[in-house]
Design brief:
By secondary structure, the protein is mostly helical. It is built from 15 helices and 2 strands. 72% of the residues lie in helices and 1% in strands. A hairpin with a 2-residue loop joins strand 1 and strand 2. The longest helix has 28 residues. Bound molecules: 3-methylbut-3-enyl trihydrogen diphosphate (2 copies) and magnesium ion (3 copies). One 3-methylbut-3-enyl trihydrogen diphosphate binds next to helix 4, helix 8, helix 9 and helix 10.
C-alpha cells in the first residue's frame, strides 16, 4: 500500500487509540489510596495528547524487526514522562500556563502542591513500568537495564531537565542560534531520541543503526520544537489546546523571536530534509517516520 499522508493519519489514529487503551490499563489505580494524587495523574494523562513519543517506541521496535507487544510498557513509560514534563512546565514557577490540551492545567484544578507531586509520581511510575518490562514480556534484562540507563540520562540534568534550565535561564536575554539549537535538542529532542531508541534497543537493534535513528531524532526534535514555537505565535488556541503567546509573555528565546517566522519555517524545512536524508538507508519500513517528519511542517496542534 502506498504510504501517503492519508494512510499516515489513519495509522496515527490507530496508534493513538491503542496507546490510550494501554495507558488506561497502566493507570487504573484511580481508586487507590490516596485518591487525589491518582486523580491528578489521570487528569494529566487523559486529556487528548498526540502520543507521539509512544509511537516512536513502537516504530523503533518495528524497524528492528521486533514484536510491538514487547515494548508496550516502554511506550507507556515515555508518555508518562512526557506528561510529567508538561505538568511541571506549566507551573507558575515555570511557564505559568493555565491551559493544556484544551483543559485547565493540573495546578489550576488540583493546586500547585498536588501538581508537583503528580508530576513526580508520573515520572516515578514510568521507571517502575520500564523495570517491569522484563518480567511482563520476558525481554533480555540487559536490554531493559540499558533502556533505564539511557532514559535516566536523556530526561535528567544533562538532558531534558538541562534544556528546561537553559530555557528558563535564557528568559529575557538574547541567546545565539547555536545555544538555542542546543536548548531545543535537550528539552525536546532528547525524549524523542530515547523513545525511538528504547523500542529499537528492546528489539535488539545494533549500535550502527541506532546512530542513524539518533540523527533522525536530532533533526526531528528541532523541526518539532520550531513548529511548536511557530504555533505559539500563529496557532489557534482552540486547536492547539494551550495558550498562544506564552513564549512572548515569558520573554522566551525561540527561533521566531530571534530570526522571525519566515526564516524559522525555512529552518524547520531544512531539519525535515535532514530527517529524510538520515532515513535513506531504510526502505518502506521507515515510511511512517518520513511522514512524521513531514507532518511537523503541516501540523495545527
Ligand atoms: C509539547 O509536546 C511539548 C513540546 C515538547 C513541544 P506535544 O506537542 O507532543 O504535546 P501533546 O503530548 O500532544 O500534548
Ligand atoms: C516544553 O517546551 C518542553 C518540555 C516540557 C520539556 P514548551 O514550554 O515550549 O512546551 P509547551 O509549548 O508549553 O507545550
Ligand atoms: Mg517551557
Ligand atoms: Mg510551556
Ligand atoms: Mg511551546
Amino acid at each position: 500500500m502506498d504510504f501517503g499522508m492519508e494512510h499516515f493519519k489513519a495509522q496515527v489514529n490507530k496508534y493513538r487509540d491503542f496507546i490510550d487503551e494501554q495507558l488506561q490499563e497502566t493507570l487504573e489505580s484511580v481508586n487507590t489510596y490516596p485518591p487525589t494524587i491518582h486523580e491528578a495523574m489521570r487528569y494529566s494523562v487523559f486529556n487528548g495528547g498526540k502520543r507521539l513519543r509512544p509511537m516512536l517506541v513502537f516504530e523503533g521496535a518495528k524497524l528492528a524487526g521486533g514484536n510491538p507487544d514487547e515494548v508496550i510498557p516502554a511506550a507507556c513509560a515515555m508518555e508518562l514522562i512526557h506528561c510529567y514534563s508538561l505538568v511541571h512546565d506549566d507551573l507558575p514557577a515555570m511557564d505559568d500556563d493555565d491551559l493544556r490540551r484544551g483543559k485547565p492545567t493540573c495546578h489550576i484544578i488540583y493546586g500547585e502542591a498536588i501538581a508537583i507531586l503528580a508530576g513526580d509520581a508520573l515520572l516515578t511510575r514510568a521507571f517502575e513500568l520500564l523495570a517491569l518490562s522484563s518480567n511482563l514480556q520476558q525481554i533480555d534484562p540487559a536490554r531493559v537495564v540499558q533502556v533505564i540507563s539511557e532514559v535516566s540520562k536523556a530526561v535528567g540534568s544533562c538532558g531534558m531537565i538541562g534544556g528546561q534550565v537553559v530555557d528558563l535561564q535564557s528568559e529575557g536575554r538574547q541567546i545565539d542560534c547555536s545555544t538555542l539549537e542546543t536548548l531545543h535538542s535537550l528539552k525536546t529532542g532528547q525524549l524523542f531520541r530515547v523513545s525511538l531508541r528504547s523500542g529499537a534497543i528492546i528489539a535488539g537493534m545494533d549500535n550502527k543503526t541506532l546512530a542513524i535513528l539518533d540523527n533522525y531524532c536530532y533533526h526531528f526534535g528541532l523541526a518539532f520544537q520550531i513548529s511548536d514555537d511557530i504555533l505559539d505565535i500563529k496557532g489557534n488556541p482552540q486547536v492547539i489546546g494551550k495558550p498562544v503567546g506564552s513564549d512572548f509573555k515569558n520573554a522566551k528565546n525561540t527561533y521566531p523571536s530571534i530570526l522571525g517566522l519566515e526564516k524559522s519555517y525555512q529552518l524547520a524545512q531544512n531539519a525535515v530534509e535532514a530527517c529524510l536524508e538520515s532515513l535513506q538507508v531504510f526502505g518502506k519500513e521507515a515510511d511512517f517516520l518520513r511522514c512524521l517528519a513531514r507532518y511537523t511542517l503541516q501540523r495545527e496542534k
